What does this fold into?
Amino acid sequence: MPSWKVDLKFLRNILDKVEPNFTGNGKYSKFYPLYEMADTFLFTPADRTQNGPHIRDAVDLKRVMSFVVIAMLPALLFGIFNVGYQINPNGELKDIFLAGLKIVLPIILVSYSVGGFWEVIFAVVRKHEINEGFLVTGMLIPLVMPPSIPLWMVAIATTFGVVIGKEIFGGTGYNIFNPALVARAFIFFAYPAAISGDRVWTVDGISQATPLLQASSEEGSKALELLGSQFNWWDMFYGFIPGSIGETSTLAILIGAVFLLVTRIGNWRIMAGTLLGMVLTAKLTNVFGEAVASSNSMLYLPAEYHLVMGGFAFGLVFMATDPVSAAQTDRGRWIYGLLIGFMCVIIRAINPAYPEGMMLAILFANAFSPLIDYFVMKSHIKQRLKRFAA
Amino acid sequence: MNIRVKKGHDLKLVGKPTKQLDTINFGPIVKLHPVEFPGIKPKLLVKEGDAVKKGSPIFFDKNHPEIMFTSPIGGRIEKIVFGERRRIEIVEIAVDDNAEEITFESFPPGELSALTAEKIISILCTSGLWPTIRRRPFSKIADPGKPPKSIFISTMSTAPFAVDLEIILENTPQENIQMGIDILQLLTSGAVHLVSPNNIPNSKLAELKNVQRHTYSGPHPAGNVGVHVSHIDPIKNKDDSIWYISLQDVISIGILFLSGTVDYKKYITVAGSAVSVKQHYSVNRGTLISQILSKNNLEASARIISGDILTGSISNRDNAIGFYHEAITVIPNVPDRVFMGWITPGFGKYSLSNTFLSKIFPKREQVLNTSMNGSKRAILPIGAIEKVMPLNILPTMLVKSIIANDIENMEQLGIYECDPEDFALCSFSDASKMDITGIIQDGLNFAELEG
It folds into this structure.
C-alpha cells in the first residue's frame, strides 16, 4: 500500500522538522522529553551502539511495558463487562458492556491523564525521558479500584501513587513500593469507607458485599457456610462477583498470567512462590482452625477459595511481579513470593477489620525485598568464599 | 574436566565465514596502534624517517621498560600520529620487503634445560611477543615480574564468526604448539591449562604433553577464558593472578623459540552480513583492514569492527587489525526506524526475550544492524541478564554496587573474576539498554585504583 508508506514518511518528516525546536537551544528544549516520547512512540529510536556489543536485542522497555498492559486486557475487558453485569444481570450484552464502560472508562482516563501529567512534569524538571513504566501503573490503578470510587479520589490516589510512591524515590526503577499499590493503600487509609466496609459496591444505587466480606461477616461460623449459595467457586473463578474492576475474574487474570509467563516478562519464581506460600499457609490455618475450634470463620477458608477471592490472583500476577519493587535475585524472588502468599492469608484470617490482605501483603513484602536481597547476597558471598577455600 | 555451560546464548547471525583459507600479504603500509593496549604508557624508540627491521622495537611501556612492541615488517617509519596530550595514536611504517630481520637464539625441541624463566621473559619481551600474554584480573599485559598461579590457553571463541580451531590445527605442526606450551610451563610453578571445545576431538590436542587439557560445551560465553578460569582456578582477590593467551600466540612463541624468528602471522575470519566474501585468512599483525578487505565489497555505510561482533572495537579501512583481534566483522550501520516497533509482531526481529514472533523459528539466522533497538532506561531487573551469565556472579547486584561505587560489595561479589567480555550478552539482552559491559569496565578500573 503506497499511500500507507507516504503517510509514514510524512510523519517522519514532521518529526525531523520540529526536532531542532526541542534540542540544544531550541525554543522548547525544556520539553524535549515530550518530543522524545512522541518520536520514539511512533518510530523505533535512531540510537546506534557506540561500542561492543555492536548489536542489541530487539526488545526494549516500551515493548516490555506495553506487553504487561496487553496482559491486563482480558481482566480489563471482563471487568468492564462485570461492572455492567452487577448492575443489571439480565440486560442485553451490549447494554451490560456499555453500562460498564460508562463507569470504567472515566476512571481509566483520570488515572492516565493525572498520572501522565505528573510523569511529564517530573521528566521536564529532572530532564530525563518519560518512562514507559507509567503505561502499566496507569492501567493497574483503575483495575484495583472499586467501580464505585469517585473520580476525584482516583485523581488524588494516582497523584499520591506516582509522586510519593515513585517520583520522590527518583522515578521508575528506583521506587521501593509498587506505585499502583501505594495509590490503593492511600485510598484505603485516607477514605476507608470508599474501598472497604459493607458499602463498597454501591453502584447506581445497588449495594452488595464482596465475597471476602461475606466470608468474614460472622463469628463462630465457617467461611464456606457464610459464602453459602450466594457465591460458588466457579462464579468466583469466572468473576461474576462484586469486587474491584479488574480483580474479580481469576480466569481472565490467568490468561494474562500465561501471557506474561510465555513472554517471560512476569517472573515465574515470584508467581510460583506466592501461590505456594498462600496454599501452604491456608492449609496451615485450616488445620489450626479445626484444632482449636476457632470461631474465626476465615481460618477455615480453603486455599482454592483464597485463590479466587479478592485481589489475590490479580496481585500475584500483576502486582507482586513488578520487577522494581520485588526482590531482584532468583532465590530472593522465591522468598519474596512465599512471604506474600503467607502474609496475604494471615492478614485475611487475623485482621477482622480488613479481610482483603493481598495489597498489604505485597506492600509488606516490597518493604522487605531489599532485606531479602541483602541476605541472598550475603549467602552468595559466603558460598563464594567457601569455593575459594576448597 | 569438561566445563558445561548452561546459561548463555549462541547468536544465530547471517554472515558466517566459510572454511576457505587464503593468505593476505602486507600492503605498502603497516600500522601499530599503541592506544589499543590498556594500561601502558608508550614511549617511542623511533622517529619519522628511521629505517626499521622486522622485529625492531618501535615503542616500549614506560611502566615496564623491558616490554617492547616491535615492527612486524622491515621498512621506514613513515608517519607518527599524536592525539590529545601527545598520546601516540598511530605509528605508520612503509614496507620494504628487502629489509633485514632481527633474529633470536633458537632451541631444539625438548632441550630447554638451559632456559630459565628470566631468559624466556627477556626473549619474549624483546621480540615483541610478550604483550600476547595478558593477566586476569584486569585483562592487561602480564607483569613479567609477578609469576601467575596458572596459565590458560584459549583455543576457540564461542562468539559469532570465530576462527575455526580445526583450521589452525590443520595448518600448524604439532611441535610448534608443544614448544609454545613448554615455554609457558617454565613461566609458572602452577599448571598450564588448555581449554578446547568438546566437539573438536583433534588428535593433535590429545597428544600434547606438559599441559592440563580441559574441554567446554554449551553456548557462548562457554569459550571465554573468564568462564574457564572460574571453573578451574578462580581468581580470589586483587593480587591473585592468572595469565591467559590465545592458542595462535602460543604457536608464535613456539616458532620463535624453535626458529629464532618472530612470527607475526595469525588466522582471522572476515565475516558479517555486510561483507561479500566471508572466509578465513592468514594475515600478519599490523596489516591494514583495507588490505584485508581489498577483494571484498562492503555495503555502503557498513560498520567495520576489528574483533568479534560482541567485544570488538569500531574500526575503519585505514586502521590495522587489532593486536588481539582474530576477526574482522562487518555489519549494516543504518538503524531502520520502524513505525511503532514496540508493538509490531516482529517476525524479523532477534530477541532473547519471548516478545517477538520470530521465536517461532529460533534457528533462523538473522541480519542484525547497529541499532540500539530502544532507548536507555533505568535498570529494570526482569531476570534477562541472569539467563546469560554463567559465572558464579549476581549480575544485577554487582552492577548496582559498581554504580554506587561500593568497593567492598564489588569485591565480595566477585569483580576480580569479571571481564567486560563475559557481560557482552548481558548488555545485548538488557531491555533497559544499559551499557553493562562499560559498567563492569568502570568497576574494574575503580577496583584497581581503590581496592
In short: The two ends of chain A are 67 Å apart (CA to CA). Chain A has a mean pLDDT of 85. Chain A touches chain B through 59 residues (CB under 8 Å).
